[in-house]
Amino acid sequence: MAIDDPYYGMEPANCIPDNCFCEANLFFILIAIIILWNLYNAKTNRSNHLLTYHSYTWLFAFGCFLTGAGSFYYHASFTLYGQWFDVMGMYLSITFFTVYNIDRIYKLRPLKFILLYLGINLLLCFFLTSFPETRRYLFAAFVIIFLGSVFYTQARLKTFISEKYLYLSLFSFVLGFGLWILDIKKTVCDPNSLWQLHSVWHFLTAMSGLLIYLFYFSEDNKREAG
Question: Where are the domains of the chain?
Answer without folding.
Answer: 7-14+22-224
